[in-house]
Specification:
This protein has helices at about 1-20, 60-65; strands spanning about 20-30, 35-40, 45-50, 55-60, 80-85, 95-100, 105, 120-125, 125-130, 145, 150-155, 165-170, 170-175, 190, 195, 200, 210-215, 220, 225-230. With about 230 residues, the protein is mostly beta strands. It has one domain (about 1-230).
């Protein structure tokens, strides 16, 4: 009996930890518009920008999303508990979301380093660490790590079409067509992991130029689902 209970609670804890990690990455074909979506214990999604701002939250509606493949993907309202910080809380997070269901959100406060103030500090069990002001200017202030997920970015020394964009997410590499490539495809996603993306160029028929020719719309890589929108 004790062994059964121990196994049950171990599974519950593992599920909770997994549920609060990075779950979905939604981006346009350039990688300039991008959402990092963290799934809560209650199965809600919390959308976060690469510089650590909480943008939105709600419930995924894949049926509607697949019918209307448009960025950003629309979420249904979350009908569970929502609590905000009060007007007497720290100035850097007063009025911001404090609880989404069972998931508590904390933020860096006025006594933290200036460049961190107001950014997400934790989502449930997931802690956030950022590149600080002395880092390369192309990604200073962006998320460096969220829980066990590490992020790297192209630097200010890289090609103009790549600067500041994600280079790796949880070990998965991202590359882009450079500013020297055809004008219809420069800056667009070239690879995510081992998956290649190709596009119609400016030499192709009008109406097709820049449109995606090959590469996925949605695909799991490890535990993370990538979604690429027009």
């Amino acid at each position: 009996m004790k062994r059964t209970l121990l196994l049950f609670f171990s599974c519950m804890i593992s599920s909770a930890l997994f549920a609060q990690g990075l779950s979905v990455i939604s981006m346009d074909r350039t990688g300039d518009k991008l959402l990092l979506s963290f799934r809560t214990i209650d199965n809600a999604l919390i959308n976060v920008s690469k510089d650590g701002q909480l943008l939105s939250y709600g419930m995924e509606n894949l049926q509607r999303q697949n019918l209307h493949w448009i960025f950003p993907p629309q979420l249904d309202p979350y009908m569970g508990r929502i609590e905000n910080y009060s007007d007497i809380d720290d100035v850097n997070f007063r009025g911001k979301v404090k609880y989404i269901g069972q998931t508590m959100v904390t933020y860096y406060a006025s006594y933290d380093k200036e460049e961190l103030r107001g950014k997400i500090k934790t989502l449930g069990t997931t802690d956030f660490v950022y590149y600080e002001s002395y880092s390369d200017k192309a990604f200073a202030g962006n998320i460096q790590r969220a829980g066990n997920t590490n992020f790297t970015y192209y630097s200010s020394f890289d090609n103009e079409a790549m600067k500041g964009k994600f280079k790796t997410i949880a070990g998965t590499g991202l590359s882009y067509y450079s500013s020297f490539d055809d004008k219809a495809i420069k800056g667009r996603i070239k690879n995510i992991g081992s998956e290649n993306f190709t596009y119609y160029t400016s030499f192709d028929r009008k109406g097709y130029q820049g449109a995606q020719k090959s590469g996925f719309l949605t695909k799991y890589m490890g535990n993370i689902r990538y979604q690429v929108f027009p």
